[in-house]
Design a protein that fits this description.
3-OHacyl-CoA_DH_NAD-bd; alpha/beta; eight-stranded mixed beta sheet; 3-hydroxybutyryl-CoA dehydrogenase; binds 1,4-dihydronicotinamide adenine dinucleotide; globular; oxidoreductase; EC 1.1.1.157
């Protein structure tokens, strides 16, 4: 089955990025959000990023026009009826995702693959609300989607080889590199990244070094492009805490204990860049 038309559900920072790369790769794309304002904002962001790419001579003006022509807004999940692949990127909440997948199972044609961009929720559990668990899969893009090359492809317990292959081929067409990952808490990316960020927060909490110096250690000592605390602010401290909780509870292992300082910052509303304050202050 060749994938030609894609629907992306959720037009936030991830969904808009996913819709953009799919349209740039030549797929017809429907972008849906239950919130009309979010949908408009997502589409505007895509246009802005494409315009910037033209200015920087990364793409031509025609590429931009063609991409935007392939991208259409959708106001109803029912529009999934014309799609071969649906990629869900709504909020990280099992109840919300379960409802979306239940509806998609009704609206999307029988052959369609249903993928989720979840960063931590079990694919097997999301698949279980549908009558096609063999056609449900994790397609975990990295943020910002147009820039980052990696996609983790996560197999649920019942994901078929055909579904896996179709998504692996699709990912290659998006000019991304994929890795195959099992359906365990944090998958691979967050299982490795988040404990490092959490440990960096412990280092600050225990007075090992200052925020700036912890970041310097990893940037200048380990050649990371960004320090772990800068990165945590960028991801969002609430998201970091949420993923640490998933690891802690999922493995029932104290090595994933979220740092008390991280909890305190989240309680204070210091969520990182998006709230104006995290480990650093933003204007
Ligand atoms: P976001 O909050 O920017 O966007 C979510 C969008 O989904 C919002 O526009 C909201 O209106 C919409 N939405 C919520 N419920 C909906 C529903 N029932 N139907 C249609 N639209 C609905 O969130 P973000 O950051 O884009 O995350 C989306 C997903 O991607 C989450 O599962 C997250 O864990 C995952 N993810 C996030 C990354 C990040 O760095 N932010 C990285 C990789 C994955």
């Amino acid at each position: 089955m060749a994938i030609q038309k894609v629907m992306v559900i959720g037009a936030g920072q991830m969904g808009a990025g996913i819709a953009q790369v799919c349209a740039q790769a030549g797929f017809d794309v429907l972008l849906h959000d239950m919130n009309t304002e979010a949908l408009e904002k997502g589409l505007k962001n895509i246009e802005k990023l494409l315009t910037r790419a033209v200015v920087k001579e990364r793409i031509t003006d025609k590429d931009k026009t063609d991409t935007l022509n392939r991208l259409k807004p959708s106001n109803h999940l029912k529009d999934a009826q014309s799609c071969d692949l649906v990629i869900e990127a709504v909020v990280e909440n099992m109840d919300v995702k379960a409802k979306v997948f239940g509806d998609l199972d009704v609206f999307a044609p029988k052959h369609a693959i249903l993928a989720t961009n979840t960063s931590s929720l079990p694919i097997t559990e999301i698949a279980a609300v549908t009558n096609r668990p063999d056609q449900v899969i994790g397609m975990h893009f990295m943020n910002p989607v147009p820039v980052m090359k990696l996609v983790e492809i996560i197999r649920g317990l019942q994901t078929s080889d055909e579904t896996y292959q179709a998504i692996e081929e699709m990912t290659a067409k998006l000019n991304k590199t994929s890795v195959e990952v099992a359906d365990l808490p944090g998958f691979a990316a967050n299982r490795i990244l988040m404990p490092m960020i959490n440990e960096a927060i412990f280092a600050v909490h225990e007075g090992v070094a200052s925020v700036e110096d912890v970041d310097k250690v990893m940037k200048l000592g380990m050649n990371h492009p960004m320090g772990p605390l800068t990165l945590a602010d960028f991801i969002g401290l609430d998201t970091c805490l949420y993923i640490m909780e998933v690891l802690y509870e999922g493995f029932n292992d104290s090595k994933y204990r979220p740092c008390p300082l991280l909890r305190q910052y989240v309680k204070a509303g210091w969520l990182g860049k998006k709230s104006g304050r995290g480990f650093y202050q933003y204007n």
